[in-house]
Specification:
MetI-like_sf, membrane, flat, mainly alpha, Oligopeptide transport system permease protein, 310 residues, MetI-like fold
């Protein structure tokens, strides 16, 4: 296990290096001057000083070397659009907001999706199965922003139970969390139902039934343990996307999260913000995938990692 983890960390570093390098040269290949609209009214000498401050007066390959050197030291640079604000500080300030909504939505979507998927599989072709599949179709078909607007109308306009917009106590997170979790809930329910039905049809399940294993033990120790593994695979990418995927929800509910910075930085060609958030998102994504591999072996002891191979 230790050898496997060390090897995966090496892959993580290599992958992160490739992602950062590609992002750096891609963002610099976009035509236009990122500071043109900010420095066009400044005196020529002040403009030159402005470019020199951000290293934009140097060749791209030299800028790349400067960025990698600062990155190793933990410095993600300063935002071009928000002068004086470091990228690291912006991420530390706004990432927890997006993370809170995202983690709550993952916990709710994953847990309820697993339960509903199991119920649908065990009650196949009965009314619980039809209800779960109906909810799954609605969850996948209806965009999150439509659901968010519907929730706002019902719980803030029609009945005035929860706040419409803003950020503060736990009650401000309820509607955004529901809006974000509904799609993942539907996805997990569908996957879990399909996996459970596949496992139930296996020979070892029929053997266990013939030996008189109780239904509870059969479901908990055999069906769920084997059916949940493919579903866990979905967790890795979803964890990494909680900061980007919440952009629309953050806009609707006026939540001061990181999602809006991610989109606006690309539009504004804020090199430092784009690269800084790329480092953050890519690191989170890669770590999540490694964590999923480790969870595999914890969920199912039959999985053994030997020399980096499963």
């Amino acid at each position: 296990m230790l050898r496997f983890i060390v090897k995966r960390i090496g892959y993580m570093i290599l992958t992160l290096f490739i992602v950062i390098t590609m992002t750096f040269f891609l963002i610099h290949s976009i035509p236009g001057d990122p500071l043109a609209h900010l420095a066009k009214k400044l005196p020529e000498q002040v403009k030159l000083n402005y470019y020199a401050k951000y290293g934009l007066d140097r060749p791209v390959i030299e800028q790349y070397g400067m960025f990698m050197k600062n990155l190793v030291q933990g410095d993600l640079g300063t935002s071009l659009v928000y002068p004086g604000r470091s990228v690291t500080k912006i991420i530390k300030e706004y990432a927890p907001v997006s993370g809170r909504i995202g983690i709550q939505s993952i916990v709710i979507g994953f847990s309820l999706g697993i339960v509903l998927g199991i119920v649908a599989a065990l009650k196949r072709n009965k009314w619980p199965d039809y209800v779960v599949m109906f909810l799954a179709i609605i969850g996948i078909s209806v965009p999150s922003f439509v659901l968010a607007n519907l929730l706002q109308y019902i719980f803030t306009v029609k009945f005035t139970i929860l706040p419409t917009t803003g950020w503060g106590s736990f009650e401000y997170t309820i509607l955004p969390t529901i809006a974000m979790s509904f799609t993942s809930l539907a996805t997990y329910a569908r996957y879990m139902r399909a996996n459970c039905l596949d496992v139930i049809g296996q020979d070892y399940i029929l053997t266990a039934q013939s030996k008189g294993v109780s239904k509870i033990n059969l479901v908990t120790k055999h069906v769920i343990r084997n059916a949940i593994l493919p579903v866990i695979t979905l967790l890795g990418p979803q964890i990494a996307m909680i900061f980007v995927g919440s952009f629309v929800i953050e806009s609707i509910f006026s939540i001061p999260g990181l999602g809006r910075y991610f989109v606006s930085s690309v539009q504004d060609r804020d090199f430092s913000m784009v690269l800084g958030q790329t480092v953050f998102m890519a690191s989170l994504y890669i770590v999540a995938l490694v964590a999923v591999d480790i969870i595999y072996s914890l969920v199912d002891p039959r999985i053994r990692i030997n020399g980096g191979k499963r």
